[in-house]
Amino acid sequence: MGRTDSGERLIAAPPAAVYGALLDPAALEVWLPPDGMRGRIERWDPRPGGGFRMVLTYLDPTGGPGKTSDATDAVEVGFADLVPPERVVQRAVFEAGDPAYAGTMTMTWHLAATGGGTEVTVTATDVPPGIDRADHEAGIASSLANLASYVETAG
């Protein structure tokens, strides 16, 4: 059993808007990359059993922080479960030669309606040991802030 990392944020938008941003490839390219990265979706199949491939590029690759190359993290993401507008479950596998990044990490995005919008909780289970917990949780928080900005300004 691997490690679990998580994050949460109240987003001032209805669950349907947040769910839509989780399943729109153009939106994902904008909000999913944490600060210091940009993303590109290379394949897209939004259904249970489908998925996508995303390449995340470090804006400053000094020191070679990437898992796939000095400047990139490539990840294959499968959709394990889609329950509109409440939950998206993804299974992510990083393309990396280092066994510390091997394995399948499950990301569960849970959306709950509140009086002020949507409480979004992200839980990452079976996080590969090569991913630093503090960095990962900071990345989750950054992605959630980007998601909030994206859907709050779109509405």
Supply database-style keywords:
155 residues; ASHA1/2-like_C; 3 helices; Alpha-D-Glucose-1,6-Bisphosphate, Chain A, domain 4; seven-stranded antiparallel beta sheet; START-like_dom_sf; SRPBCC family protein; alpha+beta
Describe this structure in words.
The protein has about 160 residues and is an alpha+beta fold. The chain has one domain (about 5-155): 2-Layer Sandwich (Alpha-D-Glucose-1,6-Bisphosphate, Chain A, domain 4), CATH 3.30.530. About 25% of the residues lie in helices and about 45% in strands. The protein contains three helices and seven strands, in the order βααββββββα. The chain has helices at about 15-20, 25-30, 135-155; strands spanning about 5-10, 35-45, 50-60, 70-85, 85-95, 105-115, 115-125. A seven-stranded antiparallel beta sheet has the order 1-7-6-5-4-3-2. A hairpin with a 3-residue loop joins strand 4 (about 70-85) and strand 5 (about 85-95). The model has no long low-confidence stretch (mean pLDDT about 95). It comes from Streptomyces zingiberis. It holds the Pfam family AHSA1. This is SRPBCC family protein.
Write the layout of secondary structure elements.
Blueprint: E1 3-11, H1 15-22, H2 25-31, E2 37-45, E3 51-58, E4 72-83, E5 87-95, E6 105-114, E7 117-127, H3 133-154
Antiparallel strand pairs: 1-7, 2-3, 3-4, 4-5, 5-6, 6-7
InterPro entries: ASHA1/2-like_C (IPR013538), START-like_dom_sf (IPR023393)
Pfam family, one: AHSA1
Family: Belongs to the AHA1 family.
CATH topology: Alpha-D-Glucose-1,6-Bisphosphate, Chain A, domain 4
Major β-sheet strand ordering: 1-7-6-5-4-3-2
Largest sheet: 7 strands, antiparallel
The oligomeric status of these chains comes to single chain
CATH architecture verdict: 2-Layer Sandwich
Q: How many structural domains in the coordinates? A: 1
